Amino acid sequence: MCGVAGVLAGLHAEPPGLDELKRMIAMLGHRGPDGYGFYRDGRIGLAHARLSIVGLAGGFQPIRNEDSTLWISFNGEIFNHVELRRDLEARGHRFYTRTDTEVIVHAFEEYGPATWAKLNGQFAICLWDTERRELWLVRDRLGILPLFYARRGDHLVFASEAKALFGGGRVTPAFEPARLAQVFTHWSTAPHGSVFAGVESVPAATAIRVDSTLALHVDRYWQPDFATDPSLARLSLDEAADRLEETLLDAIRLRLRADVPVGVYISGGLDSSVIAALARKLDTTHMHSFGIRFTDAGFDETPQQRLVAGHVGTEHHDILCSPQDIQAALPDVIRHGETPLIRTAPAPLFLLSRLVRESGIRVVLSGEGADEWLAGYDIFKEDKVRRFWARQPDSKARPKLLGRVHPFAAVNGQKDSPLWQAFFKRGMMDTEETFYAHRTRWRNTAWSQRLLSADVQAAADDAAFEAHVAAHLPDGWSRWSPLARSQWAEIATFMSPYLLSAQGDRVAMANSIEVRYPFLDPAVDDLCAALPDRVKMLGLRDKLALRRLAARHLPAEIFQRPKRPYRAPMTTALFGDGAPDYVRDLLSPEALARYGLTDADAVSALADKAHRQNGRMAGEREEMALVGTLTLQLLAHYVHDELPQRVREQRDALDRAEIHVLEDRALKDRDADARTATPQPTAA
């Protein structure tokens, strides 16, 4: 994994200067601490910060094809690069590095835009075609890695993170009120945006071709198909587990390819434990595993983590996360994540990736994706119960099934209360609604918008988020089962824009750690989508095929264990007697007024209540509202007050790193003429 950045000039605009590119890529040094590379010609500048994983020697980017007509700055890994390279060499292509990056330029030579669908990987690609004067901006199928862009005058700027756009100087950070409000309902902005005005995100599974006039041509090169494959329709549970194990083993085998050691995350839950067990089946050498412990027993899974590590035979490392640790990490998490958060869950993961780095490991496998593709979340159970109840809305027995949902929430009889049932009954009869399964969650989270300023609330347009997702639903979506429709809604609105970013790429790359996701392998996902619902969820029993697979490799305590959502302490870690100074400072009336993004009176009232009660709030929506407000203030402080100094510091640090610069001859000659004609300042 790496950091990418660049500037494309219009037909009659000045090409970017080297110092602008240096300022941009310097802001991404955490993504690539092993050196920097640059390419410039009369139209474009590409920059790259390298994290060496494959092809350690000679792998500096940007990388070219044989005749230097294609140049690429690439972030990610192509796991099937060995197979692609073998085929390309047989077709006459000649390589000058051992990297997976070079495979992309040769594949593009051979296949053109059909290349993107051939790549098994996690990637953000910036590819410049010097002959056609076209730039390609491409993201992987599920948006594992980020890529942002902005149009400023007659230039298009692009980078792995928005802070690099700001560092170059062409883009000034300013919040987009409507998108801020989206975060306070949907946990993230719509998949094509960011919280910053004019800063867009390349959507997942999308290739954007930028032509010589800077016009954008958008193509979605992949979409899922959850229609059950007739050849799989009669699979027994054991046969489904066989197919899943075979496909997962192939995915893990590819993701163990690296020129550095590969470790595993172990949470104590089913998904990461399966990955750890299968990884050890393939790799019997010394392997490291990593987990998070919590001082708060309500969040801790230490016994299960250590049971799995001992069973599969890894050298296990863990961190003990306290409220003070969350407090200390949260500002860094927001600086790297570039968005408000309505939960603190990314903070312990940031600390975990730091532990991985300190242990000398650069790559880890993780279990994300299993809950989405194999129906492990309670939101799918909610959907099933509510649809069942809707067929007899006056039933007294059917709503009692809601007591079997969310086993770690609403204890002490609350799940039998009329209030609990009324919460889920609202909108229950609208079973044909596109986002039927998710409407309850979004309605609950939207309560937090009341802490935003009147201007932000007035700009709120949650319908725009949903309209964007609805406009990009895959072909045949309406013919899928209700479970399949809710699965894809979860992937498109939650996993890709929030989970893989805030709890994945951003907190890992903050510490220069690459996380790989076997459950997000294309073959695994295609198989899971095509499996019949009954081997994913039967009644309210979840992930049946995966549990049957896990029974072959793991203790019963793990494969029979109910899904336990990963969570971290929220307001109990941030408010009350132990609150850090920055919480009180940023939520003071003066700070709230300074940025003008919140309703100062509403925030102060709720924050005062949280302090009086040592963070113990009546419900989760109040916790999410306070965490969202605090992290919004942290982000505003960063982009408005800290960023200019950080740009200077990072730019100075880049000059002490290894730098590779490639420029075409005409640009070098022009720059030399300009230096001769223009008096240069001398050092004092």
From TrEMBL:
InterPro entries: Asn_synth_AEB, Asn_synthase, ASN_synthetase/amidase, AsnB_N, GATase_2_dom, Ntn_hydrolases_N, Rossmann-like_a/b/a_fold. The record marks E368 as: Important for beta-aspartyl-AMP intermediate formation. Its EC number is 6.3.5.4. ATP binds at I292, S366, G367. It is an enzyme of class 6 (ligase). GO terms for molecular function: asparagine synthase (glutamine-hydrolyzing) activity; ATP binding. GO terms for cellular component: cytosol. PANTHER family: ASPARAGINE SYNTHETASE, ASPARAGINE SYNTHETASE (GLUTAMINE-HYDROLYZING). Belongs to the asparagine synthetase family. This is asparagine synthase (glutamine-hydrolyzing).
